[in-house]
Write a structure and sequence with these properties.
InterPro entries: Kelch-typ_b-propeller (IPR015915), Kelch_1 (IPR006652). Keywords: Kelch repeat, Repeat. The chain is mainly β. The chain has a domain of 103 residues. Helices cover 0% and strands 40% of the residues. It is built from no helices and 22 strands. It has a four-stranded antiparallel β-sheet, with no helix packed on it. A hairpin with a 2-residue loop joins strand 3 and strand 4. The two termini are 22 Å apart.
């Protein structure tokens, strides 16, 4: 768990790690930069913190943390081409993808970048079909999926897009049953799950509903709802031994 803001609105550098074997939270080395609305992804055994904002500054900086390294601390890697917050990040293999979000002018972005650890540089990829922010992304079966969020008109989205790294192209897929932004998404057993979030232009409704997307069938199915409706949260799946 990294960054964000506390109950008083102070922006945080702090990082915590949960050990499921000991059932304890551990304080980890802090990030170099406090980040709110930061995107995060795991690449190999490393954790990446991407973009975000603080004190009205939108960041193009990226930090990486290797917990297995001697004297482990957060280290900068080359900056993104575009500063962004409310973006999403995901990894396929050893490549880090950063998608969408909002820039320093509050424009909702369609821009997509990929970091190549061998070349130590960012490459520009084809843009999203629909610019979006406050959405979710996950890698399933070597493909990158982005779902939900809101567009340049601040309209909540149902849409789902998939990027094929081999073809280098985005494909529009079947949309979710309901629009949602500030949602969580994860990959599990070959499927994509979209969880919670919020919807509505004026009277925001926090959602507890959940949907599962099957890439083979290009179909969504409603699943059991969350016990507690929630938005702007994080979610991940892990296999416990």
């Amino acid at each position: 768990v990294l960054g964000g803001s506390d109950a008083d609105g102070a922006m945080l550098h702090s990082v915590e790690r949960y050990d499921p074997r000991q059932d304890v939270w551990e304080q980890m080395p802090p990030m170099q930069v406090a980040r709110v609305a930061v995107a995060a992804a795991a690449v190999d055994s490393c954790l990446c913190a991407v973009g975000g904002n603080n004190d009205m500054v939108v960041h193009d900086s990226v930090e990486i943390f290797d917990p297995e390294a001697a004297g482990a601390c957060w280290l900068p890697i080359p900056r993104m081409r575009s500063p962004r917050w409310a973006a999403a990040a995901a990894a396929i293999g050893r490549s880090l993808y950063v998608i969408g979000g909002r820039d320093g002018n509050d424009e909702v972005l369609s821009a997509v970048e990929r970091f190549d650890p061998e070349a130590q540089g960012w490459g520009i990829l084809p843009p999203l079909r629909t610019p979006r922010a406050s959405f979710a992304a996950a890698a399933v079966g070597g493909m990158l999926y982005v779902v939900g969020g809101y567009d340049t008109m601040l309209q909540d989205l149902r849409s789902l897009e998939r990027f094929d790294p081999v073809l280098g192209a985005w494909q529009q897929l079947k949309p979710m049953g309901a629009p949602r932004f500030a949602l969580g998404a994860l990959a599990c057993r070959g499927c994509l799950y979209a969880l919670g979030g919020a919807a509505g232009d004026v009277d925001r409704v926090v959602l507890g509903t959940a949907e599962r997307y099957d890439p083979k069938a290009d179909a969504w199915l409603s699943t059991s709802p969350l016990r507690t409706p929630r938005r702007r949260f994080g979610v991940a799946a892990c296999r416990l031994k």
